[in-house]
Design a protein that fits this description.
There is one protein chain. The chain contains 7 helices and 4 strands; from the N terminus they run βααβααβααβα. It is of the alpha+beta class. It has a single domain, classed as Nucleoside diphosphate kinase-like domain (Alpha-Beta Plaits). It has a 4-stranded antiparallel sheet with strand order 2-3-1-4. Bound molecules: adenosine-3',5'-cyclic-monophosphate. Adenosine-3',5'-cyclic-monophosphate (CMP) binds next to α4. The site of adenosine-3',5'-cyclic-monophosphate has 9 residues, from α4.
């Protein structure tokens, strides 16, 4: 079954949106198979956002994502990568459709509440960066 990496960013955690965000994915029918509240070490943030290292906002991006606790998650389900991206909405909250997480709660492109893997390759890389295999649960016996 497909897995994706989702993360409530420091702005979402501080605004008390963890429960709301977890509920949206549970209500949709996806399974939460890994989760932790953590402050991301700077070296991990730089790896996570490595593809943006030449962008002018890279320093700001790493400063922000390491500025407070994030809620890192692994979710499982059919087409969860693309569906979660749709549920998150566009990166710029002003362009995100109402009803999506960023459309409902986001204000700026930097403080846009949630991160989600954009492809199977990114999902694999991001899950491995944030979670040990032992930290990922299996629901198979229950289903
Ligand atoms: P995310 O999905 O976490 O992946 C890369 C992030 O870069 C993106 O969400 C935005 O929050 C952030 N980002 C994109 N453009 C800008 C920008 N112009 N200034 C600051 N952050 C940005």
């Amino acid at each position: 079954m497909e897995k994706t990496f989702l993360m409530v960013k420091p702005d979402g955690v501080q605004r008390g949106l963890i429960g709301e965000i977890v509920s949206r994915f549970e209500n949709k029918g996806f399974q939460l198979v890994g989760a932790k509240l953590m402050v991301i070490p700077r070296s991990v943030a730089e790896q996570h956002y490595g593809e943006h290292q030449d962008k002018p906002f890279f320093g700001e991006l790493v400063d922000f994502i390491t500025s407070g606790p994030v809620f890192a998650m692994v979710w499982e389900g059919e087409d969860v990568i693309a569906t979660a991206r749709q549920m998150m909405g566009k990166t710029k909250p002003a362009e995100a459709t109402p009803g999506t997480i960023r459309g409902d709660y986001g204000v700026t492109v930097g403080k846009n509440i949630i991160h989600g893997s954009d492809s199977p390759t990114s999902a694999k890389r991001e899950i491995a960066l944030f979670f040990d295999e032992k930290e990922i649960a299996s629901w198979e016996k229950l289903l």
